Amino acid sequence: MRLDRWAAGAERSPRSGAFAWRRPAKCDGRSPDDRRADVDDKIAVYLQAGSSLVIVVDPQQRAVELHDAARTVRLDETSTIAHWALPQFEYPVRELFGVLRRA
């Protein structure tokens, strides 16, 4: 993934020329044919562009990963999605996969 591919979701700083991501969080779903290295590259691009949080939903593993600049947290169906970048947002992982199952 190239940073310029995501420029549509970012604003370029007039002083530094760096991109500032306008969204505090980005959510991405994994497909069965996604390579882990490609997913990791995409996560790095979003974080480098200024996202505070990247959420990766993996329906095959029935898991959710929360990535920020400091760490990665892997959540299973007994967990709740919550992060400081999304104040007052909480969503049970089990419900997320329940919704996906119905869709």
Layout of SSEs?
Blueprint: E1 10-12, E2 19-21, E3 25-29, H1 36-48, E4 53-58, E5 63-67, E6 72-75, E7 80-81, E8 91-92, H2 93-102
Parallel strand pairs: 3-4
Antiparallel strand pairs: 1-2, 4-5, 5-6, 7-8
Describe the protein's architecture and organization.
With 103 residues, this protein is an alpha+beta fold. The chain has one domain: Alpha-Beta Complex (tt1808, chain A). It contains 2 helices and 8 strands; from the N terminus they run βββαβββββα. The chain has a 4-stranded mixed beta sheet, covered by helices on one side. A hairpin with a 4-residue loop joins strand 5 and strand 6. It is globular. The two termini are 29 Å apart. The N terminus is likely disordered.
